[in-house]
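Request: Not sure, any thoughts?
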Amino acid sequence: MDAQVKRGLLDVCVLAAIKFDDSYGYKIIKDLEPYMKISESTLYPILRRLEEQGQLTVRSEEYNGRLRKYYGITATGRDKIAQFASEWKEIMSVYDYVTREE
């Protein structure tokens, strides 16, 4: 798969994982596990990039004596998901065309 396409898919999947509730890294990985494998070394740069782009927020809370970072989606992140859903319909139309049987 093209690296740029994969990067875009990973970004939107991470945003979708926190669409309903704030979450933390390990839980995001576990929530995505049924759909795709993603490692910590892949996830954390994505989270930093999405934060820099204003698509998510980060807050720290103490949990069992340690600080845990929680990630929440912003309106910009929700817009990114909506844009993806809209574009995906077009991509599926192209896929159907390319894979059609004669």
About this structure: The domain at 3-98 is CATH 1.10.10.10 (Arc Repressor Mutant, subunit A). The chain is about 60% helix and 15% strand.
